[in-house]
Design goal:
The structure holds two protein chains of two kinds.
Chain A (H helix, E strand, L loop, with lengths): L1 E6 L3 H12 L3 E6 L2 H10 L4 E5 L7 H11 L4 E5 L4 H9 L4 E4 L4 H14 L6 H4 L2 E4 L2 E4 L4 E4 L2 E3 L3 H12 L5 E2 H9 L7 H15 L9 E4 L3 E4 L3
Parallel strand pairs in A: 1-2, 1-3, 3-4, 4-5
Antiparallel strand pairs in A: 6-7, 7-8, 8-9, 10-12, 11-12
Chain B lengths: L9 H51 L9 H11 L3 E5 L2 E4 L9 H10 L3 E7 L2 E13 L5 E13 L1 H51 L14 H56 L7 H32 L7 E4 H11 L6 E4 L5 E4 L1 H18 L4 E7 L3 E7 L7 H4 L22 H11 L3 E6 L5 E8 L6
Parallel strand pairs in B: 7-9
Antiparallel strand pairs in B: 1-2, 1-5, 3-4, 4-5, 6-8, 9-10, 10-12, 11-12
Helix pairs in contact in B: 1-2, 1-4, 4-5, 5-6, 6-10, 7-8, 8-10
Classes of the chains: A alpha/beta, B alpha+beta.
Keywords (chain B): Kinase, Membrane, Phosphoprotein, Transferase, Transmembrane, Transmembrane helix, Two-component regulatory system
Catalytic activity (chain B): ATP + protein L-histidine = ADP + protein N-phospho-L-histidine
Pfam family, one (chain B): HisKA
C-alpha cells in the first residue's frame, strides 16, 4: 500500500479526495496547512505528497522547496488555476508533476502510480548491465544510485528516470514529447516544461558546470541527448 | 475626389476672399477716381480751347470788312489757327486735314442756332473737339444780326486723353502695390485664426486615436476659444464615460474569472465524490441509481463549462499564453482524433511530415471543437483535410449535415449561441467555437464558417507558418 500525504486547506475537498483516493488503494494522510503537512511528513515520512499550491500560511511553493531540501520524496502539485504562473513556480520549486483542478481522481491516481514507478525499476535493465560508467558519472541500474567522482548524488525518482532513459541510449536525440511519454507517462498533450525543468534540476546535480552541460545536452529546436562525451 | 468650385483649405479660402475684396476695392477706387479726374481734365481743356477759339475770333472779327471777301476770310482763318474752316455764303477758306470732319449737319446746326457749338468726336482714330460758331454783327443801336460768316475749328484731344490714360495707369500701379500687402495681411490673419483651429484638430485627432487626456488650452475670448472650451468639456465627459466603462468591463471580466475560480474547489470535491459514487451505482435501487448517474453526468458537464469559462476569461484578460513548438501535423491530428475515439469515424486527408509551428494544446482544442461540432450538428461522414500553402496551412472540417443558414453562420462563433432552440441542452458548453476562434486568432490565423460543396457545414482554420517559437 502506497502512503500519500495530501496537503489541502479546503476541508470538503480534502475529505472528498481522501475518500476517492482511498478507493484506489492508497493510504491517505491529510493535512490542512503547509506547516501541518511538513510536521506530519517529518513525524512519519510517506511515499508521495499531493500538494495544493494555494495554502494559508506558508504556501505550496515553499512547502515544496522545504520537502526537497529534506529529501527526494516525489511531489505532485494540485494547481487551482492551471495558470502558467503556478505551474512554472511549482516546477521550479521541484515538483515532479502537476494536476489541474478539478481533476478526476483516476487521473491523480495514474500520476501517483507513474511517479512511483520511476523509482522502482530502470528501463531496459537487462540489456544494459548493472553498472554504467560515463566519464566521472557512475550509474547503478539495479540499486538505482548515481555517483559522481565517487560521491553519491541524491536524485529524485523523476530525475533518475530521466537520466536512465537518456543515458540508456547515449548520443540518441530524444524529443520532449518522447521523454514525456517515457518518463512521465503523459499522453500526447504533455507539458514540455516538465522536461525542461527536470533537465535543469538534473544538470544542477550532475554537471560540473550546469551552464555548459557535458552529460545532458540540448539539441536546439528538438530535445535532449546524453553526450557525446 | 469630387470636384469643388471652392478651394478646400480654410487658409486658401481666407486668402482668396481677402485678395478678392482688396482687388474689388482697389478696382472700384481706381475706376471712380480716374473717371472723375479724367472728366475734370477733359472739361477744363475743352473750356480752354473754346475760350481761345472765341477770343481769337473776337480779336479779328471787328476788323473785318462786310461783306467779307476771300482775303478777309483767309485772315480770319489764319488768326484762329490751324485746322480751321471759315465760310461765308459760297466763299470758303480752310486749312488742315481735320476740316473735312466738319459735316453739313454741323454747319446747318451752327447757321440755324446762331451760337457757339462744340462737340467731341472720334475721327481718324483720334479724339477730336469740333468747335463752330457764326459771327454776329452788332449794330450801333444794339441789334444783333448774323453776319453769315461761320468759323469751324477742329482741335486734337489726344494729349488730354494720354494724360487721362497715364493717370489711370498710375492709379492701377498704386493699387497693385496694395495686393502683396493684402496677401501678407491675409496670411497673418489666417494664421492667427488657423492656429487654434489646427490645435483643436490635433486634439480631436489624439482623442480619436484613444488618447483621452488630450486637451487644448483656450486662448483669448473669441468664438474659437469657446469652441475649444466645449471640445475640452466633451473630451472630459468622454474620458469619464470610457473610464467608467472600462472599469465596469474589467470588473465584469474579473467577476467571471473569480466566479469560475471559486467554482473550482467545490467542483473538485464533487468530481472526487462522484468518482466514488460511480463505483457503487450498480448496487442501488433504480431511481437512486439514475439520480446518481445524472449527478455524475451533470458534474462532468459543469466541470467542462467552468473550464471553458476560465479559458474565455483568460482570452478576455489577454493572459492566454501561446506556447509555440514545431509540431508534425499529421501525427497531431491523429493523436487528437484517437484520444477521442474518432479516428475511424473521420475521413482524414493530411500530408505526412508537415512540420508547423503551433501551440500543440491549442491546435488540439480547435480541432476537437470543430470535429465535435460536426458530429453534433452535422451528419457523417466528417472530412478533415490539411492543405499546406507557402505562408499558411489550411485545415478544413466538413460534414454532410444540412449546413449553416446565413443567419446562423453570422453568429456561430458567438458565446453561448444556440442555433436550434430544441437542441439548447446539447452536451457542449456553448463556448467551443468561440474558444476555437480565439485560439486561431492567438496564432495570428483565423477560423471561418461556410457551406461545403456537399451542402454541409464547412469550417476552415488558417494557421500562419511563420509564427516563431516563444
Amino acid at each position: 500500500m502506497v502512503s500519500v500525504l495530501l496537503i489541502e486547506d479546503d476541508p470538503l475537498l480534502r475529505r472528498g479526495l481522501e475518500l476517492a483516493l482511498s478507493r484506489y488503494g492508497h493510504e491517505i494522510r491529510a493535512a490542512s496547512s503547509g506547516e501541518d503537512g511538513l510536521h506530519e511528513f517529518r513525524r512519519r515520512p510517506v511515499d508521495l505528497v499531493v500538494l495544493d499550491l494555494m495554502l494559508p500560511g506558508i504556501d505550496g511553493l515553499e512547502v515544496c522547496r522545504r520537502l526537497r531540501s529534506d529529501g527526494e520524496v516525489p511531489v505532485i502539485m494540485l494547481t487551482a488555476r492551471g495558470d502558467d504562473f503556478d505551474v512554472v513556480g511549482g516546477l521550479a520549486a521541484g515538483a515532479d508533476d502537476y494536476v489541474v483542478k478539478p481533476a478526476q481522481p483516476a487521473v491523480i491516481d495514474a500520476r501517483i502510480r507513474a511517479v512511483l514507478r520511476r523509482g522502482v525499476s530502470a528501463p531496459d535493465v537487462a540489456s544494459a548491465g548493472r553498472m554504467r560508467t560515463h566519464r566521472d558519472l557512475q550509474i547503478d541500474t539495479t540499486a538505482l544510485t548515481v555517483s559522481r567522482q565517487g560521491v553519491n548524488v541524491a536524485l529524485t525518482a523523476t530525475e533518475l528516470r530521466l537520466l536512465l532513459t537518456l543515458s540508456g541510449s547515449p548520443e540518441q536525440v530524444f524529443s520532449r514529447q518522447q521523454l514525456l511519454r517515457e518518463v512521465w507517462e503523459h499522453d500526447y498533450l504533455g507539458d514540455s516544461r516538465l522536461v525542461d525543468n527536470c533537465v535543469q534540476r538534473l544538470r544542477a546535480k550532475i554537471e560540473a558546470n550546469p551552464a555548459v552541460p557535458e552529460y545532458v545536452q540540448t539539441v536546439r529546436g528538438f530535445g535532449y541527448r546524453f553526450g557525446p562525451l | 475626389m469630387t470636384w469643388r468650385p471652392w478651394p478646400r483649405g480654410l487658409r486658401t479660402r481666407l486668402l482668396a476672399a481677402f485678395v478678392l475684396v482688396t482687388l474689388l476695392g482697389a478696382a472700384a477706387s481706381v475706376w471712380a477716381g480716374t473717371r472723375s479726374a479724367g472728366r475734370a481734365l477733359v472739361t477744363s481743356s475743352q473750356d480752354q480751347l473754346v475760350r481761345g477759339f472765341s477770343d481769337q475770333i473776337g480779336v479779328v472779327a471787328p476788323t473785318l470788312t462786310y461783306p467779307p471777301d476771300q482775303s478777309a476770310l483767309d485772315r480770319l482763318r489764319a488768326a484762329v489757327g490751324a485746322d480751321t474752316l471759315v465760310t461765308y455764303r459760297d466763299l470758303r477758306s480752310g486749312s488742315g486735314a481735320g476740316v473735312d470732319v466738319v459735316t453739313d449737319t454741323l454747319r446747318q446746326t451752327v447757321s440755324t442756332r446762331n451760337r457757339m457749338f462744340s462737340q467731341r468726336i472720334t475721327a481718324h482714330g483720334r479724339p477730336l473737339l469740333l468747335l463752330g460758331t457764326s459771327i454776329v454783327v452788332t449794330a450801333p443801336d444794339g441789334t444783333r444780326t448774323a453776319s453769315g460768316i461761320e468759323v469751324f475749328a477742329v482741335r486734337d484731344l489726344s494729349p488730354v486723353q494720354h494724360e487721362v490714360e497715364n493717370l489711370t495707369r498710375a492709379s492701377i500701379g498704386a493699387a497693385a502695390l496694395v495686393i502683396p500687402l493684402a496677401v501678407l495681411l491675409a496670411l497673418l490673419a489666417a494664421g492667427s485664426v488657423l492656429r487654434p483651429v489646427r490645435d483643436l484638430r490635433d486634439t480631436a485627432r489624439r482623442l480619436a486615436d484613444g488618447d483621452l487626456r488630450a486637451r487644448t488650452a483656450p486662448a483669448g475670448a473669441d468664438e474659437l476659444a469657446e469652441l475649444t472650451v466645449t471640445v475640452n468639456e466633451m473630451a472630459e465627459s468622454l474620458q469619464a464615460s470610457i473610464t467608467t466603462m472600462q472599469r465596469m468591463q474589467a470588473e465584469a471580466r474579473r467577476f467571471a474569472a473569480d466566479v469560475s475560480h471559486e467554482l473550482r474547489t467545490p467542483l473538485s470535491t464533487l468530481t472526487a465524490v462522484m468518482d466514488v459514487l460511480s463505483t457503487v451505482t450498480d448496487d442501488l435501487e433504480p431511481a437512486v441509481q439514475e439520480s446518481a448517474t445524472l449527478a455524475i453526468t451533470e458534474t462532468h458537464r459543469l466541470v467542462r463549462l467552468v473550464e471553458d469559462l476560465m479559458e474565455v476569461s483568460r482570452f478576455d484578460a489577454g493572459t492566454a499564453p501561446l506556447r509555440i513548438e514545431d509540431v508534425e501535423l499529421a501525427g497531431a491530428v491523429r493523436d487528437c482524433l484517437r484520444a477521442r475515439s474518432w479516428l475511424d469515424q473521420v475521413v482524414l486527408t493530411v500530408p505526412e511530415q508537415l512540420w508547423v509551428p503551433v501551440d500543440r494544446r491549442r491546435l488540439d482544442v480547435i480541432l476537437a471543437n470543430l470535429v465535435a461540432n460536426a458530429f453534433r450538428h452535422g451528419r457523417p461522414p466528417v472530412l478533415v483535410s490539411v492543405l499546406p500553402a507557402v505562408a499558411q496551412v489550411l485545415i478544413t472540417v466538413v460534414d454532410h449535415g444540412p449546413g449553416l443558414d446565413d443567419g446562423v453562420r453570422d453568429h456561430v462563433f458567438d458565446r453561448f449561441y444556440k442555433a436550434d432552440a430544441a437542441r439548447s441542452r446539447s452536451t457542449g458548453s456553448g463556448l467551443g467555437l468561440a474558444i476555437a476562434l480565439e485560439n486561431a486568432r492567438l496564432h495570428g490565423g483565423g477560423l471561418t464558417a461556410g457551406r461545403a460543396e456537399t451542402g454541409g457545414a464547412q469550417f476552415v482554420l488558417r494557421i500562419p507558418r511563420n509564427v516563431r517559437p516563444s
